[in-house]
Amino acid sequence: MMTKKSMREIVLRLLILCIATFSLLITVSHGGELPESETENFLNFIQAVDPKNVLRIVWDNGWVPHPCSHNGVKCSLNHTTIRAIRLESLNLCGVIDAKSLCKLRNLEVLSLAQNQIHGTIPDSMLNCTSLRYLNLSSNLLNGSVPIGLAKLKKLNRLDISKNQFKEEFKSLNEYSLDAYAPTGPGNRETGVGKNHKLVGKWIMWMPLVFGIALLFVFIRFLNVREIRSAREKEILRILAQSPTKPLPLLAKDVAEEAKGDDRQSELVFFVDEEERFRMEDLLEAEADLQSQGLCSSLYKVKLKKNAFFAVKRMKKLQASFEEFGATMREIGNLKHPNILPLVGYNSSNIEEKLLIYRYQSKGSLLTLQENYTEGKRDFPWKHRLCIAVGIARGLNYLYQRPDASETIPHGNIKPSNILLNENEEPLISEYGISKFLDPKSACLLNANGYTAPEKVSSEQADVFSVGVILLELLTGKSIEKSGLDLPKWVKSMVREEWTGEVFDREITKAGIYGFSLLNVSLKCVAHFPENRPSIAEVLEKIEEVVNAQEDLGFSPNSSVEFN
């Protein structure tokens, strides 16, 4: 009978063998990060084929999410190389940068079918030697087809039909008839032969693949057990000690703290008991990466109860455990219809912090603006005015709270941070984060035109950002789309007495109300902070517009003032 000691020795040896094998596999696969050259070549190709940035693969604020996180892009299991790019029926209107594309040495699948891609198929496409599947059908490609395209050794399927090429494909078919017409009757025998070869190779490699799969399953099992160490173990132990407590009046009674070896951690909720969950539930939940930047990542998380949450993972925060917890508790107790409520947070004295919100399925003001610009929906004046007054009310609440221990500027007001609830009313998100970011950090100072010229976080800076958003609502122009210096453009139009040309077509229906709101907007975007109104004054002016609509008529000669 095997003793416990011998059992432990066997398990230990097996573990060492698995670790060694796993290390070898990792070494062979060159790590888990996509090389910079791979990312650069991918982005060059995307920027050429999608000059209008329809895919939003390159964010307008400079953030570049991991290429493997995008729909239509498939990578190897360890995310070290790009294997497939499928971007079909997406209204892409650029050209094919084959030089950059073919530097993706392991790219096997490329499908750009049913777009509006123009230009030619470059001769450099012949350098894509790993391609097995190429579909460029239903585009606007012209010129001649590289004669050696079908000679690519690994290419099994090629479709370049429904384009505007000058010549027929007879010469192409001579080299690879089954590649161009895979379903033709003359190709069945060849296809069967190829299938036999593939089956033979698959049978030969099956034991190795099966063994590696078993090894990975075992390693995964061990990894799941070991991963419960450090911070996660600590948090789970805390939750186990006090799994249920009635909701107190103050959030400080909800948190359970663990202190040992100079480490602290806490999971705090600001919602009713039935909405809470364990850290273990969060770690095991389905998570969909929504965005990733220098200082944060945003995930859409689905828990077992089919409840959706938005979890923001923060890093590079300049805050102690105590300071962060105190501020989050204060923010968690904020109650206002135009402030996105904080469901909870997870903090430790390690750099990582998690902020938990309810997921807003209606998206953001940026989404609404884009859908309107693309003609996908209406954006009437009353809805715009509702959003404007909601933003002002929310910010005014943050600055006028009598019970606040300190006034924290928002510091990053922009359309993507204005979420929409089920009634499409505005919810200001990410409040309080700016307090813990370096004022000079790129995490805080975005380059989209919403940041005040003085680049200092303050009420006056937030008023400037609100003014830019008001101008967007009035003009129908989105800074993140056009890169336009909107305040400068509007002021120049007013100086040239072209004020009426500033307004979007929906605003022209509003008559004098548009001019009144334009006056407020231009005061908000004054260059010097001392010339801008307070947020309370901005709210007062916007509410005057709301209250006066039934009494005032349209006057095309209304005057506009600005500093």
TrEMBL record:
SUPFAM superfamilies: L domain-like, Protein kinase-like (PK-like). Coiled coil: none annotated. GO terms for molecular function: ATP binding; protein kinase activity. It is found in: Membrane. Residues 284-546 form the Protein kinase domain. It comes from the Eukaryota. Residues 1-31 form the signal peptide. Keywords: Glycoprotein, Kinase, Leucine-rich repeat, Membrane, Receptor, Repeat, Signal, Transferase, Transmembrane, Transmembrane helix. One of its GO terms (cellular component) is membrane. The chain crosses the membrane at residues 202-223. InterPro entries: At_inactive_RLKs, Kinase-like_dom_sf, Leu-rich_rpt, LRR_dom_sf, Prot_kinase_dom. Pfam families: LRR_8, Pkinase. PANTHER family: OS05G0588300 PROTEIN (PTHR48010), PROTEIN KINASE DOMAIN-CONTAINING PROTEIN (PTHR48010:SF33). This is Inactive receptor kinase.
